[in-house]
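Long-time lurker. I teach an intro course on protein structure, and each term I like to show students one example going from raw sequence to a predicted 3D structure in token notation. This year I'd like something fresh instead of my usual example. Would anyone be willing to generate the tokens for the chain below so I can use it in lecture? Attribution to the forum is fine with me.
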Amino acid sequence: MSTAPPSVTPPAEPRRKALPRGRQLLAVVLGAIVVAAVLKPVTFNRYDELFGETLFVGLMLLFAFSAAGAWRQRWLPRRAAQFAAVTLAAVVSPLIVQLVTFRGDFAAFAASRHHVIGYVLIAVVATLIGTMFAAVALRGERARAQALQFALERETLERQAADARLALLTAQIQPHFLLNTLANVQELVESGSPQAVPVFRSLIEYLRACMPRLQQPDATLADEERLVRAYLEVMHMRMPDRLAFSVDIPAELRALRFPPMALLTLVENAVRHGIDPACDGGRIEVGAGRTDAQTIRLWVADTGVGLSPHAPEGQGLANLKARLRVFFGEAARVELSEQAAGGVRADIRVPVGAGAAA
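-- Reply from a regular --
Happy to contribute to a lecture. Here you go:
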């Protein structure tokens, strides 16, 4: 039964800081220098007075804009709250400067015509500049939010594609494994071997125990160890005098997330291409360990007939490499080598953090 792909959840809006950033403060200082120079010819104030006043007003506008953006309330849209805060700051902050000049005497301020004109001029300029600043800042925030949404959607689609590819590769391997195992049972039945019934019984128990794990999305190396051990026990019953094996996975690595049947692919290859063709059979050793702080190594070593120099890479091995790359990333490796005493050693190397269980 097919299922619809999960919908992309919009990214949560990041919590905004009430205090402005350093670049914004620097922009206010530079803006105050320019505005004070522009207003100097049309006022009676000294340049330092104009600079101080415009700097104070600019800082008030900036802090009002930042505080309104960080204010968590539902009755007014955030953008509207920021525009209202900027407008209020543009009106109030120049008045504060004038009242400080007149030591709080509002009547004296109102009686000074050129101070009132200066206040109105500063308030109008502050309102215009503050509104423009708010519009530009909000447009930049909207562009960053859209870029974040696009990046999230792309990451989600890439993850869905990787999951679909991994599921497809796993589905291709399962029939290969099951058909090979059933073919082994068929050979025993046709040859009239007394091992046919116990092997068939063990195979049924094996499938009953392991089939639920084949589709398990969060399989671990512990699950893979049980699968490999059960498979080797079935193979050992089929040829008890020709196959010996050991499986040794350290306890600290068993929680590692691992694609289902990946290690089993190498074990099956060792039986089919190493032990079966050998006249005297052989031994298979399965193990795992850390090579360094960043890499985990798993291996399957057999004492069978060894590598054929002209044999092409099988579909199972190609599938395994593709699955490991999808699951662990491009750092995953599968390496085959001849053993000095005969046989083949297959090593899987994967990065530590990529498959760690949550």
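Some talking points for your students: The chain has a mean pLDDT of 75. Residues 47 and 184 are 97 Å apart (CA to CA).
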